[in-house]
User: Fold MICOS complex subunit MIC13 from Catagonus wagneri.
Amino acid sequence: MVLRVWSLMRFLIKGSVAGGAIYLVYDQDLLGSSDKSQAALQKAEEVVPPAVYQFSQYVCEQTGLKIPQLPAPPKFNFHIRDYWNSGIIKVMSALSVAPSKAREYSKEGWEYLKERTK
Assistant:
């Protein structure tokens, strides 16, 4: 009985996390234009580090554990967010032509095998 309750609780927790992520993406309009996505990313960059620090301080106070300070994230010479949408566009265009390319390559391979077996 405990095993069933535990598996049900795991399912509910995972479903809640997934539902919350979907709601967050929809609410912040992350799948909209790149301007809105970039604004949401900048907002997250400003809000998340202080929230993580505050949560870690709370955990330290409640549990008595000492959490070591994380190193600063590395700095890049280019902004990843500037290239994100172009990367997504290239991946989606490659996926859209994949079936026709696969058919073309298999046809070429079949012709090559026909020539070699004569």
The longest helix spans residues 80-117.
